Amino acid sequence: MNIREPATGVSKQFNIPNMQRRIVRVWTTILFLMIAAAFSPSYLGIKGMGGGYAISVVSSFLAFAALLVIGIYVQRAKQFDAILHGDNQLASWQCSASLWQHFVEEDFKAEAAAKRSLYFYVSAIAAVVGLLMFVLTSEALFLLIIVTIIAVLAIPATLVPIMRSRKLRHSGPTVIIGRKGLIVGRMFHYWGHLGARLESVDIEIVNELRVISVQYSYPGRNGRQTETARVPVPDDKEELAGRIVFELKR
């Protein structure tokens, strides 16, 4: 079922750069550099026990990691283009400047609160485990480890919402929603890759701002990671937003 209204316009009018392809190019460069580095000891005359083995092993590992990243982002780049150019697209619209500014402010507040809650939760676990190890072993090193972990975790908890807000603020006020992902400004959310899944989708009213809230999760190094995509809904798109939510829940 295609629920995109004619009034939303043709998706090809949107001039949004595919940042996923830029990431692919960066990691492709890294891949070739790591491959060259892996073979460099033999060309440079570095003996295996003199550091040659270490250089080759580390470079090979980084090359393999780069290959995995490239595979993921090639798929994301293709899906970005598919949504941008109309394939599997459910709806698209432009927001007014005032609505977009309101949305950016509320999205930052919500994202900062979510990251702050996660930071306190993880820090509390680290503190309990570290203090328990200190009590059992009397090693002061565990106290230093606790402080270091909590300090390091504070960096992404603070910077991620700021970077997200800055990216949205400097984006065009454009929304494009697909069946497996969506584009908000220059931000791309995608839940169609291997292991990812759509968790929930609802319409929320936050400080007089109507948003479609989409939660999805994907495998991470420390278990499943959850991400929230928020979409501002203009007053004249309220009915369309309801149909989008219904379609995504199917």
Overall description:
The chain is of the alpha+beta class. It folds into two domains: 67 residues; 162 residues, no CATH class. It is built from five helices and seven strands; from the N terminus they run H-H-E-H-H-E-E-E-E-E-E-H. The strands form two sheets. The chain has a four-stranded antiparallel sheet. Strands 5-6-7 form a three-stranded antiparallel sheet. Strand 5 and strand 6 form a beta hairpin. Helix 1 packs antiparallel against helix 2 and helix 3 runs antiparallel to helix 4. The protein is globular, with a radius of gyration of 23 Å.
Name the descriptors.
250 residues, alpha+beta, 2 domains, three-stranded antiparallel β-sheet, globular
Give the DSSP E fraction (strand runs of 2 or more residues).
Answer: 15-25%
Mean model confidence by pLDDT: 84
Strand order across the biggest sheet? 1-2-3-4
- What is the count of helical runs? 5
The main β sheet shows up as: 4 strands, antiparallel
Span between N and C termini?
Answer: 11 Å
Low-confidence stretches: 4-12
Order of helices and strands: HHEHHEEEEEEH
Shape: globular
Portion of residues in helices?
55-70%
Radius of gyration, in Å, reads 23 Å
Count of structural domains:
2
- Decide which structural class fits the backbone: alpha+beta
Total strands: the figure is 7
